[in-house]
Specification:
With 315 residues, this protein is an all-alpha fold. It has helices spanning 2-34, 40-62, 70-96, 101-109, 111-122, 129-150, 161-179, 186-207, 217-245, 247-253, 257-269, 275-314. The radius of gyration is 20 Å and the shape is globular.
Length: 315
Amino acid sequence: MSKQIGVLRLGVTVGAAVAFVVTWSSGFLVPAIAVVDVSPLTLLVWRFVPLAVILIVIVVSSGAARGVTRADVRRQSLIGLFAQFGYCTAVYAAIASGVATGTTALIDAVQPLIVAVLVGPLLGLKVRGAQWAGLVVGAGGVLLVVCSQLDDSVAHPAAYLWPALAMGCLIVGTFLQRRSEPRTGTLVTLTIHVTVTAVALVPLAAVFGALVPPASVSFWLATGFAAAFPTLAAYGLYWWLLRRVGITALNALLFLIAPTTALAGALLLGEPLTIVTLFGFALCGAGVAAVLVSEARAGSEARGGVSMTAVSVRE
């Protein structure tokens, strides 16, 4: 019975990981497709404001926020400013500046190496040799995936600071979340993050004259899609997986976002897809596999150590 439960849990985790990669990747494609005739800020505002209202209503009516303190709200608001407001505005600015979707995803995908080098030790996490090898191989694969796009890029060199800023914001948000020992559930956490992002976006869009939405059906379809998938599904899965599989395994999954985005960009936007790209896909997969296998072994060893300790105590 316990074996069946373990298989079921593994299946749920794998399914959540696949859904996370797909929905997060879609977030890079929405601004590239939808902001042809509209400001990226306009799309962002109407991606977050209606969703914030809906989530607040759900949280209040369901009683999910019961027991949440002001300190919890302040802590999650700060995390949301980095992980959603800072990250999303920087990604949209990068793509609006001409940086290719795959290249933007590439720079974000370097995050695991930085987390391992800087954030891991701060959190007291030990990164094993196999994990280091997997992260390095994955990073090499990501570089290969988008190298063909760099020659065709029309973006100003300074525009590449935007995806770097997005990566930095997500790293800070993840670090704060891990340090905070969160007491709020995924729904409440997501609601606070979305709400604080909406509140920050409204005055910013008003200053730049990007607050009024167009009446086109395509715009509202794009905002609805962006609210449901890159925001609600992807971020919800991000925080759920962070608690479920840990920071190292979750960041390893980010390696798959760049090749997934590059493949979708080739199909939908005509971005380059070459043999070098396909080889990069293989390296990304190998890197992710190495990190996830090492993480699973570490978890098994830890559980085994706890079991042996329990036996010794009983004896």
